[in-house]
Amino acid sequence: AIEAWFMDNTNEDKRLPHRPNPDELVPLDHLAELGVLYWQLNPKDYENDEELRKIRETRGYNYMDLLDICPERLDNYEEKLKIFYTEHIHADEEIRYCLEGSGYFDIRDKDDRWIRIWIKAGDLIILPAGIYHRFTLDTSNYVKLMRLFIGEPVWTAYNRPQEDHPARKDYTKSLTEKV
Ligand code: KMT
Ligand code: NI
């Protein structure tokens, strides 16, 4: 299962947990309030998983590919990791299913605090369009991710600030409507 916590503000290596002592854990229903959805599935069965099939069908995720994040299997590895860790939004949802390894998705909460979400094999998360986020490997230095999308994938990242981007405006509005 995923774990999430408010990050500490030290300048240590991004791949370290940045987990304060004492813990400031973030419950999953708090993530739901921010529009972040989560499922736990069987990563060994991803080719035949009925639950995954249903999620894809219900949400229209007809596009799928696999991404191995390690120097041997990802072109321009260092450059891509830099891009992943630069705070950004997308015009669409970001859907990632961790099949092997682990990593951190950092998202901004309503008060602009970083929440670090630790995903491991079996965790599928959906970040809503317009949420500020970034990604880093953890100290295991490896993750295999499935990427899902509705239709032709668009991975364009819009780096912060993006307050005038339609997806950002819609997202901010959706947060105030939930209160
Ligand atoms: C992105 O947009 O690709 C990210 O936020 C990185 C996470 S998955 C490689
Ligand atoms: Ni992204």
UniProtKB/TrEMBL annotation:
Q: Where does Fe(2+) bind?
A: H88, H90, E94, H133
Q: Which domain of life is it from?
A: Eukaryota
Locate the residues binding Ni(2+).
H88, H90, E94, H133
Q: How does it sit in the membrane?
A: Peripheral membrane protein
Q: Give the record's keywords alphabetically.
A: Amino-acid biosynthesis, Cytoplasm, Dioxygenase, Iron, Metal-binding, Methionine biosynthesis, Nickel, Nucleus, Oxidoreductase
- GO molecular-function terms, A-Z: acireductone dioxygenase (Ni2+-requiring) activity; acireductone dioxygenase [iron(II)-requiring] activity; iron ion binding; nickel cation binding
Root EC class: oxidoreductase
Could you tell me where this protein is found in the cell? Cell membrane; Cytoplasm; Nucleus
Catalytic activity annotated for this protein?
A: 1,2-dihydroxy-5-(methylsulfanyl)pent-1-en-3-one + O2 = 3-(methylsulfanyl)propanoate + CO + formate + 2 H(+); 1,2-dihydroxy-5-(methylsulfanyl)pent-1-en-3-one + O2 = 4-methylsulfanyl-2-oxobutanoate + formate + 2 H(+)
EC number(s) from the headed UniProt entry: 1.13.11.54, 1.13.11.53
What are the required cofactors?
Fe(2+); Ni(2+)
List the GO biological process terms.
Answer: L-methionine salvage from methylthioadenosine
Q: In which pathway does it act?
A: Amino-acid biosynthesis; L-methionine biosynthesis via salvage pathway; L-methionine from S-methyl-5-thio-alpha-D-ribose 1-phosphate: step 5/6
A GO cellular component annotation here is: cytoplasm
Q: How is the cofactor bound?
A: Binds either 1 Fe or Ni cation per monomer. Iron-binding promotes an acireductone dioxygenase reaction producing 2-keto-4-methylthiobutyrate, while nickel-binding promotes an acireductone dioxygenase reaction producing 3-(methylsulfanyl)propanoate.
Function (record text): Catalyzes 2 different reactions between oxygen and the acireductone 1,2-dihydroxy-3-keto-5-methylthiopentene (DHK-MTPene) depending upon the metal bound in the active site. Fe-containing acireductone dioxygenase (Fe-ARD) produces formate and 2-keto-4-methylthiobutyrate (KMTB), the alpha-ketoacid precursor of methionine in the methionine recycle pathway. Ni-containing acireductone dioxygenase (Ni-ARD) produces methylthiopropionate, carbon monoxide and formate, and does not lie on the methionine recycle pathway.
Into which family does the record put it? Belongs to the acireductone dioxygenase (ARD) family.
Q: Kindly provide the name given to this protein in its UniProt entry.
A: Acireductone dioxygenase
Look up and give the organism this protein is from: Ficus carica
Question: Which residues of the complete protein does this chain represent?
Answer: 32 to 210 of 217
